[in-house]
């Protein structure tokens, strides 16, 4: 029985998302190296293994350690934090570790301090403007390659980019346009460097383009993560449909304010995170409410959304016609705006079949 | 040695904040019942006890359980979640439990299902529009009082309000104005009900007004929480000065992008939360950078702020004149936008004197 905020996982929807992405990877002849930062769970990871996935992506060295019990080819898709060299060496001894480098300082440091051979990608900024070298910055790229060309510990694997700017897209055509531009930046680098490095590969990320695009020519592997659950943000972007969203938060109703057309739930920023999006109809929202069927869920309830979150409270806007259908003590199901952030806060899944699935807890592992 | 995102606590600043608020409470003749949802730590709680605090506020029943080892008068400042009746009874047996009621349904449920006597406040909406009955809603107030007047388990304690709208204020005069209006709503209720309930008290909250206001006439207790640490949001509101902020996040630099005047830190949404504010000078920000002095810190560095956060990355804007002072592997100190949310994510403090202080972990307690 659900008595407080609980993250529900629909295993069938989740497995379907995994199978679909795997089929896309096969169709477009790319390796699926899924990003596990979304689900952060060994058990869910095994569902990927079951269908043939053998390589994964994570976002921190701690997460790599957690998954290293089950996986032996792990890319940490985050610029190397040189202060964690000890963890890097521990991992490098145990698994095929792949890291991202975007400066000669980091390359030099690793060259000097690594005890085991690892692969590295040069991180390229393909439009997201978060990390990475400009694709046109030949000098910096050459500097890193020069520094590592005779290295016994650093093996150049290729170029890696994350088209995170697709998160600002609305609809299929915008995603495809962003994807095209991002991909072309990576492919251009492959064209330039493939004579000198015939084995180099291109690693490409982000859920929106990997869910929608149909041209991956030149790309060797894809690293989507969020698709395993999807969420309201992906729905707004146009990367999924409502029925693809595989997680929902179950939240008890603690107060009903008819005069304000609002319901207060137990479920706040410490459960959902404060991730928000601007909805064209509702304004700023933090989640959408779905029809409840036991612990499973159906369609969106029109006009119902989280309009505000504080530490433990969620304030839900409810249409006048709908509000009398609810009582204090009922449990609402809410699709989160950003499933990665919500899962990271909740640390445990309750499946629609009432099984408990534990996640990585970076503070207690 | 700090090698990954770490929440640093300046114990002296924190104890000064506690002492100042306690002195204010004494000066204005109100009881300080601090809200412990910000620090969530038994050890920090003891610093309050040491100066004479005997009653506390928390935001969930789980948190009440955690603190019930040290405290025996606890208000859960959240509308009763009736689904947790078992926890309520466990707590009610052990400590003086005080809860918030804002509906007759909840009053009826508790009347029927409580095994031990507890106090309740009627939650009043004093302008925040999050929870609570309208102060003018005499009918609903009377309904609850009628239902509980002969109850053996529900003892009416008074009215409770949270002037959370002060979080939208900028500067002292706006805070004082909001405080005046909020307080008058509670005081009006006291005037109406004190003949029938001579022992009723008024409980009043929020850090901005409790930090700034000088008129608490009619109020019996105050429940500020955030003041224990303060943060960038309180700084913007005008509730504190930079030197009052008692926590900072230490984050390693993992990349430097001179061409974009940006530094990438290891420290993202899973460390800071995605709480943000609009700064008049910088636009949307997620934290401000301070001068580092070992693990302690000094003034803000002008022009340096977190402009974006993803799961593990923070992107820091850096003035052109400043960027060459930093190297990969350096650790930056960042004042968080919302210390409650950041502390809740980090679960552990490292003090400026290198002691570790553990927090409540609602998922592992």
Describe the structure.
Two copies of one chain form a homodimer. Chain A is an alpha/beta fold and 365 residues long. Chain A contains eleven helices and 20 strands. Chain A has two domains: 33-228, Alanine racemase (TIM Barrel, Alpha-Beta Barrel); 242-358, D-serine dehydratase-like domain (Lyase, Ornithine Decarboxylase, Chain A, domain 1), CATH 2.40.37. The first copy, chain A, has helices spanning 11-27, 42-50, 61-67, 85-94, 104-113, 138-148, 172-193, 207-212, 232-237, 269-272, 339-346, and strands at residues 6-9, 31-32, 56-58, 73-79, 96-101, 118-125, 133-134, 154-161, 201-205, 221-223, 247-257, 262-266, 277-279, 283-285, 287-293, 296-309, 313-317, 331-336, 348-351, 356-358. In chain A, strand 16 (296-309) and strand 17 (313-317) form a beta hairpin. In chain A, helix 5 (104-113) runs parallel beside helix 6 (138-148). The radius of gyration of chain A is 22 Å and the shape is elongated. At the A-B interface, helix 5, strand 11 and helix 11 of A face helix 5, strand 11 and helix 11 of B.
Give short descriptive properties of this protein.
365 residues; homodimer; TIM Barrel; alpha/beta; 30% strand; nine-stranded parallel β-sheet
């Amino acid at each position: 029985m659900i008595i407080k905020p609980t993250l529900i996982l629909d295993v069938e929807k989740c497995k379907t998302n995994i199978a679909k992405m795997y089929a896309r990877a096969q169709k477009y002849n790319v390796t699926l190296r899924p990003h596990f930062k979304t689900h952060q769970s060994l058990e869910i990871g095994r569902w990927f293994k079951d269908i043939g996935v053998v390589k994964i992506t994570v976002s921190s060295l701690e997460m790599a350690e957690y998954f290293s019990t089950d996986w032996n080819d792990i890319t940490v898709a985050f610029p190397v934090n040189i202060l964690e060299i000890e963890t890097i060496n521990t991992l490098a001894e145990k698994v095929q570790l792949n890291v991202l480098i975007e400066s000669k300082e980091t390359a030099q440091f690793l060259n000097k301090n690594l005890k085991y051979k690892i692969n590295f990608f040069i991180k390229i900024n393909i439009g997201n403007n978060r990390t990475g070298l400009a694709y046109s910055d030949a000098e910096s790229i050459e500097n890193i390659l020069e520094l590592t060309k005779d290295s016994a510990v650093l093996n150049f694997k290729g170029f890696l980019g994350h088209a995170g700017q697709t998160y600002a897209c609305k609809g299929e055509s915008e995603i495809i346009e962003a994807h095209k531009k991002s991909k072309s930046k990576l492919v251009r680098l492959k064209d330039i460097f493939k004579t000198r490095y015939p084995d180099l590969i291109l690693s490409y990320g982000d859920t929106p383009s990997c869910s929608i695009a149909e041209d991956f020519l030149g790309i060797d592997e894809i690293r989507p993560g969020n698709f395993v659950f999807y969420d309201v943000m992906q729905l707004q972007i146009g990367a999924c449909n409502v029925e693809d969203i595989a997680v929902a938060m179950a939240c008890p109703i603690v107060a009903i304010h008819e005069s304000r057309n609002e319901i207060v739930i137990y479920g706040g920023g410490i459960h959902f995170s404060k991730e928000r999006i601007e909805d064209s109809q509702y304004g700023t929202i933090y989640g959408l409410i779905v029809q409840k069927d036991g612990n499973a869920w159906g369609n969106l309830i029109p006009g119902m959304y989280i309009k505000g979150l504080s530490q433990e409270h969620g304030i839900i806007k409810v249409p006048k016609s709908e509000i009398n259908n609810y009582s204090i003590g009922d449990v609402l199901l809410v699709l989160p705006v950003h499933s990665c952030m919500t899962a990271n806060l909740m640390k445990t899944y309750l499946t629609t079949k009432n099984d408990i699935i534990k996640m990585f807890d970076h503070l207690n592992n």
